[in-house]
């Protein structure tokens, strides 16, 4: 029996990314020599303060915001919760209706469930077969009491990119503010909060080669939210607690690098993504690409394979050194197929056979070759064993 040379291929960048060495180098001093509290008056503290403020500028620049409009948080999840919950509470007298979409991350959907239990009214918009929210549907859902619309920029499972500018326009025409979860698009495609008409935007460091446990919420000047942690006056009283200085410095550097390298990374990832998509379609029968064929995040590849189980594909791939995911990382372990794939109208049985390969800056043509070399036989073998396929 021929033993394949073992490679390690990480293709799960939508779940998380490694910290860029340049980012890590920026962080190191703030754990040790520069360990000061950013609120202290002596220079050790003020060095930390300056580093936090520099990071705020770096993040603001990536999205064309002003540094004053950036609130650092513990990640994308906290940013989503902070935006939705406190905006709805603070603006309650103007209305209690929030509109979102069926393919959001659980950080949005579960927050909306919570808000509904608190008495707010929630509308969840459907998406079409590509995973796009139809502008008409948003227009129809707007009501006089709608105060907030939250639609993600790019989807974490199928990579579809939403028409944010048009959606934000509709929200504004109806007198509502517009929030977007841009965790999956930041650093991969251009995001300009002014041009796109965004009022609030959530971002996360560990999806763009920064450390885990840090993120931010952009809150446009004039938009009112409030704090849900009570304590010190950090982050303009919107996020109490001593700043995670090394983490924030890492996020800032990651944002800067993302801005610098975006064009070349996007071009490479688009090419690799298209190679992988075309290769899979050509070599694996009964496979269907999920999400939008063109309007998707560069390097994001998602498929459903009929008559196989996503989890089994993952185990076989893992045995060959390839790391990928099925559905979203948060739902694996549950038996239900991903809510995103079901929302795209993919039948239950087929949604079970989903595979997501999300490439990043360090993936190569050889990685794509390797996946294309091993994946077809994995699917053939799994289908041979499947009772669904005879
Ligand atoms: C990863 C992710 C989040 C959560 O961000 P964390 O920093 O891990 O809390 C939110 N939304 C989307 C779309 C994501 O992909």
The major pleated sheet works out as:
7 strands, mixed
Q: How widely separated are the two ends?
A: 27 Å
Radius of gyration: 22 Å
Report the bound ligands by name, code or SMILES. Answer: pyridoxal-5'-phosphate
Total strand count, please? 12
Order of helices and strands: EHHEHEHEHEHEHEEHEEHEHHEH
| Helix count from the secondary structure assignment | 12
CATH homologous superfamily of the domain at 9-18 and 262-385? Aspartate Aminotransferase, domain 1
Q: What class would the helix/strand composition place it in?
A: alpha/beta
CATH class of the domain at 9-18 and 262-385: Alpha Beta
CATH level 3 topology of the domain at 9-18 and 262-385: Aspartate Aminotransferase, domain 1
The best one-word shape is globular
Lateral arrangement of strands in the main beta sheet: 2-8-7-6-5-3-4
Strand content: 5-15%
Ranges where pLDDT stays below 50 over 5 or more residues in a row are none
Overall pLDDT confidence: 95
Record the SSE blueprint.
Blueprint: E1 9-10, H1 21-27, H2 43-63, E2 70-73, H3 76-90, E3 97-101, H4 106-117, E4 121-125, H5 135-141, E5 146-150, H6 164-173, E6 177-181, H7 193-196, E7 200-204, E8 215-219, H8 245-283, E9 287-289, E10 300-305, H9 310-319, E11 322-323, H10 339-343, H11 348-351, E12 354-358, H12 365-385
Parallel strand pairs: 1-11, 3-4, 3-5, 5-6, 6-7
Antiparallel strand pairs: 2-8, 7-8, 9-10, 10-12
The structure holds pyridoxal-5'-phosphate.
Pyridoxal-5'-phosphate (PLP) is lined by residues 75-77, 105, 107, 152, 156, 181, 183-184, 204, 206-207, 215.
């Amino acid at each position: 029996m021929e033993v394949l040379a073992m490679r390690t291929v990480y293709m799960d960048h939508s779940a998380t990314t490694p910290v860029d060495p340049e980012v890590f180098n920026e962080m190191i001093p703030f754990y040790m020599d520069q360990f000061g509290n950013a609120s202290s008056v002596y220079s050790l503290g003020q060095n930390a303060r300056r580093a936090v403020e520099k990071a705020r500028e770096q993040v603001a620049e990536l999205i064309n915001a002003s540094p004053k409009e950036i609130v650092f948080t513990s990640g994308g999840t906290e940013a989503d919760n902070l935006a939705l919950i406190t905006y709805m509470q603070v603006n309650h007298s103007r209305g209690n209706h929030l509109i979102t979409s069926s393919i959001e991350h659980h950080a949005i959907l579960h927050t909306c469930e919570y808000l509904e239990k608190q008495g707010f009214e929630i509308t969840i918009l459907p998406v079409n077969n590509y995973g796009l929210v139809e502008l008409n549907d948003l227009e129809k859902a707007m009501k006089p009491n709608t105060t907030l619309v939250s639609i993600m920029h790019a989807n974490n499972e199928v990579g579809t990119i939403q028409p944010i500018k048009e959606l934000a326009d509709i929200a504004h025409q109806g007198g509502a503010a517009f929030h977007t979860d841009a965790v999956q698009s930041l650093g991969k495609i251009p995001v300009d909060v002014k041009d796109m008409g965004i009022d609030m935007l959530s971002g996360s460091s560990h999806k763009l080669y920064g450390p885990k446990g840090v993120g931010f919420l952009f809150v446009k000047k004039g938009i009112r939210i409030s704090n849900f942690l009570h304590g010190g006056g950090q982050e303009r009283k919107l996020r109490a607690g001593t700043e995670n200085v090394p983490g924030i410095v890492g996020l800032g550097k990651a944002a800067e690098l993302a801005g610098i390298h975006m064009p070349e990374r996007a071009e490479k990832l688009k090419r690799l993504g298209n190679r992988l998509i075309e290769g899979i379609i050509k070599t694996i029968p009964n496979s269907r690409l999920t999400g939008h064929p063109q309007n998707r995040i560069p390097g994001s590849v998602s498929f459903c394979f009929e008559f196989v189980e996503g989890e089994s594909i993952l185990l076989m791939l893992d045995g060959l050194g390839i790391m990928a995911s099925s559905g979203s990382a948060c739902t694996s372990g549950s038996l239900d197929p991903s809510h995103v794939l079901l929302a795209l109208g993919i039948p239950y049985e087929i949604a079970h056979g989903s595979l997501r390969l999300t490439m990043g800056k360090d993936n190569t043509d050889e990685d794509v070759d390797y996946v294309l070399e091993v994946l077809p036989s994995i699917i053939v073998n799994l289908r041979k064993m499947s009772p669904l396929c005879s």
